[in-house]
Amino acid sequence: MKWGRRKQDVHQVTDARPSLSADIHSREIRYLIKMGIRTICLILAVVVPLPWPYRLLFIAGAVFLPYIAVIGANERGRDAPPPTFQTPGANQTEIPMHRREIGS
């Protein structure tokens, strides 16, 4: 063990969140899959002659799946940290860049 050195945090590429376009693409795919299942439920409820308990199950799927699909499409990435509304405190002793003068 070396004296005087502290253990430093090592960040890996796998710790990084996916890009915004990759996150949006995956949410779009999940939305389209859910809406495809909804379309199949609607077709089965209307076209195929089924007993009423099964037909009600397919109608419920056709009614509630759009809500579930939209909620899932609007959710941020699973690994994204929750939004913080704290702004870092400004260093009051530093002169802002637009206020600095030549020679000071």
TrEMBL record:
Region (Disordered), start-end ranges: 79-104
Transmembrane segments: 31-50, 56-73
Keywords: Membrane, Transmembrane, Transmembrane helix
Source superkingdom: Bacteria
Name of the protein described by the UniProt record: DUF3099 domain-containing protein
Organism: Nonomuraea indica
